[in-house]
Design goal:
single chain; mainly alpha
């Protein structure tokens, strides 16, 4: 029974090195998330600029409604 109580107490009150390690891991995870968000935002910005410079053209009615021949040519 003593061993179980010891494990229970150690889970409730981690020692200082464990707290440092947990804080370090949490900080590292937060930094990774921040970096990924920054990269995502930069990629979105670049994509938006590219879409403004080179808009995606939609086919006009004349070419969209043109009949397609059996050989695939219009």
């Amino acid at each position: 029974m003593y061993g179980l109580q010891s494990v229970h107490l150690s889970l409730q009150s981690p020692n200082l090195p464990d707290l440092y390690l947990l804080a370090f891991k949490h900080d590292a995870a937060c930094r990774v998330i921040a970096r990924l968000k920054k990269e995502r935002d930069e990629a979105r910005s670049i994509l938006a600029q590219a879409e403004r410079q080179f808009p995606i053209s939609t086919p006009n009615d004349a070419t969209a409604n043109a009949p397609v021949h059996s050989n695939g040519k219009r």
